[in-house]
Amino acid sequence: MKFVDEFRDAELGRVLANEILATVEPGRHYKVMEVCGGHTHTIYKYGVDDLLPANVELVHGPGCPVCVIPMGRVDDGIAVAHRAGVIFTCFGDMMRVPGGAGTLLDAKAEGADVRMVYSPLDALRIARENPEREVIFFAVGFETTAPSTALTLMRAKAERVPNFFVFCNHVTIVPPLRALLESPDLRLDGFIGPGHVSTVVGARPFEFIPADYGKPVVISGFEPLDLLQSVHMVLRQLADGRCEVENQYKRVVPYDGNPQALRVLAEVFELRPHFEWRGLGFISHSGLKLSAAYADFDAELRYEVPGVRVADPKACQCGEVLKGVIKPWECKVFGTACTPERPIGTCMVSSEGACAAYYNYGRFARERVVV
Amino acid sequence: MTDCGEDHCVTCSDEAVAMRVTEVRPDGIAVCGDAEVLTALVGDVAPGDELLVHAGAAIARAP
Questions:
Q1: Closest CA in chain A for residue B8
Q2: Rounded mean pLDDT of A113-123?
Q3: What CATH code is assigned to B17-61?
């Protein structure tokens, strides 16, 4: 397939690996964070990290939208799902995320009408097909996913669908990155920027990272050679003493993003003063809610939402994993009490989560096989 | 193409998937195989166009 096969070419991968080896300074330890769950998945599916020198460490940031949902929001969703007459819809991974009172899948087993959908548009279709019921879409995701929710809401408004509501948990990528950069227990040398978030927002919002924190950023595609090249570009900047935002994924990402998508987001959403992130706590202006023009569709205004805060389980170290402070296998419950079949922490739920990626691709031990 | 299979769930990740438009319905929704796709962010589309689709919305044209 065009733009796929050539980005999985093993021989080119070895060439890039040799270039990376020639770029690194012996004796220096490099920590590069990829902030996107899709990148984490590719790294472990294709063994990208095994092609890197031992002194280049990839750290996995908070880029899986399912993994950063706090337990209290899941419990709020479950409370709404149990209301009589409600059809509660969400993406598949979200159904298995544990709250303080079980999962949405448990709620379904207890009789709540919880349905998995592939898109907000599917949820709107369910609302049209069930005019006597109230249909709620539990919206999660970064700026990649938020436009789909926004377009669906615009359609619902234009068609005057009265029984469609959105429980909004959309988040934005820049505030948590700033929070991570302010974190005293994290030392990073550079960032692999998110590819498809940048398709929407562009590369420009990441300029604060080199400007304010002196770290290079390279926006990356999702194939293994994309990631290898992006790591090389970060290391090249460090070797040259440069520090800027570079766009490795130019075949898809315009530097200024998708202006139409940004207009749609601005119309349908507004920033919350603060939003809780699992493991990172409350971060200012990091979450989206429906704008006043779409208040009629806001599930949080329509229903009484408990709004409780639930502390993460003590045994779970998802917060440290999301900040890149520890590797998944350093968590006490990794692969024992916490597995993809019975997750304790959100990082083990979604396949984009760092813990699930390590578990599914057999990374149980600290030793890396460097080729 | 949109299954939550053993690989990963395209609707949940940051990743978009390339899809080819097979039909454009009168209501403005593009059909890509068995998926319905909103296309307002990428302008006019026609059967045969390739789009990068995430969670039921095309966020860019495929390269």
A1: A351
A2: 95
A3: 2.30.30
